[in-house]
Amino acid sequence: MSARLHAAQPYVLGLFRIVVGLLFAVHGAASLFGVLGGAAGTQGGTIPSGTWPGWYAAVIQLVAGGLVLLGLGTRGAALVASGSMAFAYFDVHQQAALWPIQNGGELSVLFCWAFLLLVFTGSGAFGLDRLIGRGAVADGRSAAEQTPIAA
After folding, report:
1. What pLDDT, in 10s, does the model give residues 11-27?
2. Alpha-carbon torsion angle 13, 126, 115, 46, nearest 10
3. How far is CA 98 from CA 20, 81, 94, 105, 113, in A?
């Protein structure tokens, strides 16, 4: 059983990356373009261009989410996305209360930790990084042979 799960690990990690990246990019698109219900608290509207920190967070969400979704520069994009969600939690949510369930910061915390996981695991299967082979030259193995480190 363990061998089968280990063999499926890169594929499940790739699907996880795609879902997390898509959800993050959709948040950015909603805030910037007013699609899918618009930005939170605007009744279907957008965040005014250049406002701090909301508009910049939405740009990070759209760009980093898209890169993570595609698996292109996954580690770097995930690091920026994780940091932006940590900032969102500590700057916006934690002022209201300590625990995420009390201050509405659950989504920020989940995105932060999910992206931090992707920083350390990489893109998994189905990523453009693996197709173009950028991450495979360090140890001489092909991109298809690389798998995440299992505990």
Report:
1. 999 999 999 999 999 99
2. -130
3. 25, 22, 6, 10, 17
